[in-house]
Every structure is written in structure tokens, then in C-alpha cells.
Specification:
The chain is elongated. 33% of the residues lie in helices and 24% in strands. Helix 3 packs antiparallel against helix 5 and helix 10 crosses helix 11. The longest helix is centred in the middle third of the chain and has 17 residues. It is an alpha+beta fold. It starts with 5 loop residues before the first helix and ends with a helix. A hairpin with a 2-residue loop joins strand 4 and strand 5. It folds into 2 domains: 295 residues, 3-Layer(aba) Sandwich (Aminopeptidase); 124 residues, 2-Layer Sandwich (Alpha-Beta Plaits). It contains 11 helices and 19 strands.
Length: 432
């Protein structure tokens, strides 16, 4: 991983309590403030185009609306189709600076969880709040990113900055195969010195938080087969315990033996009977049986969230060991599916947060403490976390994300875009 040098991190932490913003930084703040209505108008335009992940035309249209905004800032933009991953594609933009400072990767996404059949479709402004599908996650984040870049351009700090923007079209439902769907983001991470994720700002008890970690999100499927027979023989030497009892034993052993810090695991679907089967998507199934027949088949599907990839591997090994000790008359197997990896808290991530808090001090804003990773879901930045230091939550604050009524705090645009513009300008001026 390309970490910020430890000495630089220590200097940031031990730096002056407050320094006046530079003239360029004051110009950035003024530009963001002056463009608030422009930013809200752009948000409304983006939100009013449905871009549920599976609405490929809608995701493409949102990309086409964002692309000229980046073109106007001097970025070289390209649309990367993802038909082979059953998704719309990604918008990638590159700004070439002077090659001396930190190379920045800015991450966001164009899609939302609200598909074309959702009743939640339009942007509504309610004073300092904006309600609509993706108003925060992540169209609000994209607007904050663009506002910060325009502020840098106005202040003259963008011209020397080396920045790559990757806006994925399938963050809410990643395409398959994942190595293809995330190929371009991973490659961008390997080129960068710092990654900034413009998903929403977390606010806890009224305080802005800094996110230096995101947990993984992966799924597993447990299948059990057993000898059938008349229920009167259950638990006997010849009949055994049946598939449902063995499935229940394994799941309960998970519950008792797996718990540890920063780990959650869940069972979301269970089927069992004389016959049991899942559909191709693994989200529905069928089961048949009678009360006087020993169950021959049972299936459970669930997920697991960890704070590091090492924790993922270790917990999977423990789950496998439990599955490998079946009750008499039963056979069990577990399959682990790939999903979002973990973004572990690292020294490089902490150094970025320290640098952001230096910005906060100079702007007269409160310090952002590290967010408990249990309070944040998985996200795209995790795919580059093994290669580059990162920081999450540069987007706006909001409430009700992923549900009808999702509402963004429009006033947070100014705070977040100014923070991001100053942070990116300072990173771009920091020698590699």
C-alpha cells in the first residue's frame, strides 16, 4: 500500500492548532458558497433521471449529464461499457497536473437502489433539504465532488493536480464477474497515492465523523443432504437426524462460536424438506415435504461482514470447520461467494484523516473523529484499499438513504465541498 509517510502523518497531527487559510483556500470557500444554487440545480437534474443499477439506459444517461461537467474542468473523459458484466458502464476522467504532487483518485457512483418500478422517482426541495432517489447516495456526492473541483479551478489549484475520477455504474448491485466489473477502479487505485470516496458524510450526535474503514460484504450458501424416511425413525441409527436438524445445528454453532469484534453474520433465507431448491439469483426458493417424512434437503443463505480481509479468511475457515463435522446420516457443504472486500483502518488512512482535520482547524470547523466501522456499510473504495490509503465520507450528510424519502442536507454541500477542495489542493501540492 502507498501510505503517506509516517513522518508526514506525525507532523500533521502535531502541527499548529490553527493557521489562517491561504488566499487560494479563501477563494475556494467563496466559490463554493456562490455556486450553491447551481449545485442544487444540478442535483435536481441528476435525481430526476432514474438510474437504478439495472436501468442501464438511465445509468448511461446520468453519466452523459456528468461527463460535460468534467470536460469543462479540463479532464479527459471516457465511458467504459460493461455489457459483459451485465451493467451499464463507468465514467472515468483524468486530469493531468504537473506530476509532482500526490496522485488523487476520486470515487463515486452513478446508480441508485431505486429501479424504474419504484414509486420514489422525483426530486423535491423542502427548504434546506432535498428529497429524492439518490439525492445523497450518490448523486449528492457527485455534485459535491464537482463543486470542489470547480472551486479548485477558480482558485488556480486544479491546474497542477493529478486527479483520476472513477464513477461506477453499479455500486449498489455490482456486476459479475466482479474482477471485470471492478477492473478499471482497481487499476486506478494502483496508480494513486490517495483515494477519496464521495459517499455521504456520517453524522453522529450532531458531529461530523471521519471514515477510515469500511467492512466487507460477502455471502455464503450452506447446503445439507440427509437420508430420508419415515419420521418415526428420526434420530435412529439407520435414519439419522435429517437435513433440517443438521442445518439448524450448524447455524446455531455459528451463532455460539463465531462472534468476535467487528464481525457480523446473518442468515437471511432458509429452506428445508423432502426437496429444497434456490432460484438462479439465490433470493427465492421452493421446498416441499410432509410432517411425517424426514427432511432430505436443507439450504440456508446469509452474509458476513468483516473489518479486514484477514478476518474474512479466518472466519471462513472456522465456518468450514463447523460444517465439516456433520451429524450422523447427513452431509453438509458451504460455498463462499465473493463480494465487497474490507477496507481496514491503516496508518495511511489515519494520516489522511489527520490531514483533513488540519483543514478543519484552518477553516474553523470541528475535528472529525474516526467513525465506528460498524456504522458504515460496504463500498467501492474497498476494492482499492489494499493498494492506496483512503478516506470515506466526502459527500453530503443525509437521512433515510436507500429508502423512499431519502433526504440530503443541502446546507452540507458548502461545508463538504470546501473541505474537499482544500484537502485535495493540499494533497496535490504535497510531493510524492
Amino acid at each position: 500500500m502507498k501510505l503517506l509517510p509516517f513522518a508526514a502523518a506525525a507532523a500533521l497531527i502535531a502541527g499548529p492548532l490553527h493557521a489562517a487559510p491561504s488566499a487560494a483556500e479563501k477563494q475556494m470557500a467563496a466559490t463554493v458558497a456562490a455556486e450553491q444554487q447551481r449545485n442544487v440545480a444540478l442535483l435536481e437534474k441528476l435525481v430526476n433521471v432514474n438510474s437504478g443499477t439495472l436501468n442501464l439506459a438511465g445509468v448511461t444517461e446520468v453519466g452523459a449529464l456528468v461527463r460535460p461537467e468534467l470536460d469543462a474542468l479540463g479532464f479527459e473523459t471516457r465511458w467504459i461499457p460493461m455489457a459483459d458484466a451485465q451493467r451499464a458502464g463507468h465514467l472515468v476522467a483524468v486530469h493531468k497536473g504537473n506530476g509532482r504532487g500526490k496522485r488523487l483518485l476520486l470515487i463515486g457512483h452513478l446508480d441508485t437502489v431505486f429501479e424504474k418500478d419504484s414509486p420514489f422517482q422525483a426530486f423535491i426541495r423542502r427548504g434546506d433539504k432535498g428529497e429524492g432517489p439518490g439525492a445523497s447516495d450518490n448523486k449528492g456526492g457527485v455534485v459535491v465532488m464537482l463543486a470542489a473541483l470547480r472551486a479548485m479551478q477558480a482558485a488556480g489549484t486544479l491546474k497542477n493536480a493529478d486527479i483520476e475520477v472513477v464513477l461506477t455504474g453499479d455500486e449498489e448491485d455490482v456486476g459479475t464477474p466482479i474482477p471485470l466489473a471492478r477492473r478499471d477502479l482497481i487499476a486506478a487505485g494502483k496508480r494513486a497515492d490517495a483515494a477519496l470516496d464521495f459517499e455521504g458524510l456520517s453524522v453522529v450526535d450532531g458531529k461530523d465523523m471521519g471514515s477510515i474503514a469500511r467492512r466487507s460484504s460477502t455471502s455464503w450458501t450452506l447446503t445439507v443432504t440427509a437420508r430420508g424416511g419415515h419420521s418415526s425413525g428420526i434420530f435412529g441409527a439407520s435414519a439419522g437426524n435429517g437435513a433440517v436438524y443438521e442445518l439448524a445445528r450448524i447455524i446455531d454453532t455459528f451463532r455460539r462460536e463465531l462472534p468476535e469484534q467487528n464481525l457480523t453474520f446473518n442468515v437471511g433465507l432458509v429452506l428445508g424438506g423432502a426437496q429444497a431448491a434456490l432460484d438462479a439469483q439465490g433470493i427465492r426458493g421452493t421446498a416441499a415435504g410432509k410432517s411425517n417424512i424426514i427432511a432430505e434437503q436443507a439450504i440456508a443463505r446469509g452474509d458476513m461482514r468483516t473489518l479486514s480481509n484477514e478476518q474474512t479468511a479466518r472466519v471462513r475457515a472456522r465456518m468450514q470447520a463447523i460444517v465439516d463435522q456433520p451429524l450422523a446420516g447427513a452431509k453438509a457443504a458451504i460455498r463462499f461467494e465473493e463480494g465487497y472486500p474490507a477496507m481496514a483502518p491503516t496508518d495511511g488512512n489515519r494520516a489522511l484523516l489527520a490531514m483533513l482535520n488540519g483543514v478543519n482547524r484552518d477553516l474553523g470547523l470541528p475535528e472529525q473523529a474516526p467513525l465506528d466501522p460498524l456504522k458504515r456499510g460496504a463500498g467501492d473504495i474497498a476494492f482499492v484499499a489494499a493498494d492506496v490509503a483512503g478516506l470515506v465520507g466526502l459527500g453530503p450528510s443525509s437521512e433515510g438513504d436507500h429508502a423512499p424519502g431519502e433526504t440530503v442536507d443541502l446546507d452540507s454541500f458548502e461545508r463538504q465541498a470546501t473541505r474537499a477542495a482544500v484537502l485535495m489542493s493540499r494533497l496535490a501540492a504535497t510531493p510524492r
